[in-house]
Design a protein that fits this description.
- By secondary structure, the protein is α/β, with parallel strands linked by helices.
- The protein is 30% helix and 21% strand.
- The protein has 15 helices and 15 strands.
- Strands 7-6-5-10-8-11-9 form a 7-stranded parallel beta sheet, covered by helices on one side.
- The protein starts with a strand and ends with a helix.
């Protein structure tokens, strides 16, 4: 019997599906850069050997993700559903199991993010109501960032009866509720456990909460009423001057894993990050970072607040991700190298610094290559790749 198929998009979702021997991948649609990236990240195995591969332009692939406004990054695949284990059979003769159970959680992004967290913490499976599980959702697969291949999904018809049956089989059910008396960090996790989470808007239903043995809360600011199940990741750091660029470039390579960042740098670096076109500070760092991130200069920090006192001012910057990056993931390396070459000799014209690059004739007509790199906008640089 043939299984139904559906499409997924994004580098991690597609690559992990290809790596999973239990996943049937019917077709893969890739840009040339995406294909090279797959081979570079999997040097010991040809993941595309037994799959029908079609090479497409970024524009041709946009049709697979434009409705959901997702970045495909040059990766699209048609796959079949995995055979998921039966919950009753799975728990037989097993001990020290931990499941996550979702009560009325329906947003595909939240479900995907939670599955990614479950995979990260070696959770044994996610229990979800069958009609609430968006099994064909590109949004869920994109948010899960490849972790759909590594977590058991148990679809059940009734959450309450499932919890009742599991409690009879020596499972402890921990309901996460804002009215809980204890913090979850106080729990001594032993035996078989179920972590029960409620919906984005209303939390755990009262009837479902009756099937929990304990109610716990997450300690947080008293002014915050609740924490969304799709927990954002915020990065806070003080970056040493000599590795500022590598760390910020690394953040760009990990866009799917964080939401915003507050970073302290030397003011000179901060000035380069927020520099305007035609200024001496405007350069590779400005252009590459600006293609992916929005940057807000928060404030300056004077040397006299530090011990020992440095010789330069520092600055706090806030980084947030653009809704639609100017460059897709599969073109990041090429874009970074091109911008680096352009600014390598910033007093020279582009016709000299980019002499060895294969720039389409049409673009050379749109952009005057007698210009110097500091006169090009970030958007103009993005058009070159």
């Amino acid at each position: 019997m043939n299984k139904s198929s559906f499409f997924i998009v994004g580098q991690h979702a597609v690559m992990e599906a290809l790596r999973n021997p239990n996943r049937k991948v019917l077709r893969v649609f890739l840009t040339e850069d995406a294909k090279k990236n797959i081979h570079r990240k999997n040097p010991n195995k040809n993941l595309l050997e037994e799959v029908k591969v079609y090479f497409k332009s970024k524009k041709e692939l946009d049709k697979y993700s434009s409705k959901e406004q997702l970045m495909h990054n040059g990766y699209v695949a048609e796959i079949e559903h995995l055979d998921q284990p039966d919950l009753k059979e799975f728990i037989k003769e097993k001990n020290n199991l931990t499941f996550v159970c979702l009560d009325e959680v329906t947003d595909p992004r939240n479900i995907g993010s939670l599955i990614r967290s479950a995979a990260s913490f070696n959770i044994d499976g996610v229990i979800i109501k069958e009609r609430h599980f968006p099994k064909d959702s590109k949004l869920m697969y994109k948010s899960a960032s490849g972790c759909m291949e590594h977590v058991n999904i148990f679809e059940v018809s009734n959450i309450n009866s499932t919890l009742k049956n599991l409690r009879e089989k020596n499972f402890w059910v921990y309901g996460f509720d804002s009215k809980g008396q204890k913090d979850f960090t106080d729990v001594k996790w032993e035996g078989n456990n179920i972590l029960l989470f409620g919906s984005e808007g209303f939390g755990i239903k009262a009837k479902t909460l009756e099937n929990s043995d304990f109610r716990f809360k997450v300690k947080m600011n008293d002014n915050i009423e609740s924490l969304n199940i799709n927990c954002p990741v915020r990065i806070i750091g003080n970056i040493p001057y000599n590795i500022t660029s590598p760390i910020i470039f690394w953040l760009i390579e990990q866009l799917e894993y964080w939401d915003d960042a507050y970073i302290m740098t030397q003011k000179e670096v901060a000035d380069r990050l927020i520099a305007k076109i035609n200024s001496k500070e405007y350069g590779r760092l400005t252009v590459v970072v600006g293609a992916y991130l929005d940057i807000k200069y928060c404030f300056t920090i004077k040397p006299d607040v530090f011990i020992p006192k440095p010789k330069v001012d520092s600055a706090i910057l806030r980084f947030t991700k653009k809704d639609l990056p100017l460059i897709s993931d599969d073109k990041y390396i090429k874009f970074n190298k091109l911008v680096s070459a352009a600014f390598g000799q910033r007093r020279k014209m582009l016709r000299n610094t980019l002499k060895g690059w294969d720039i389409p004739v049409g673009l050379k007509k749109k952009i005057d290559f007698s210009r110097r790199p500091e006169t090009l906008t970030i958007e103009e640089f993005a058009s070159l790749v």
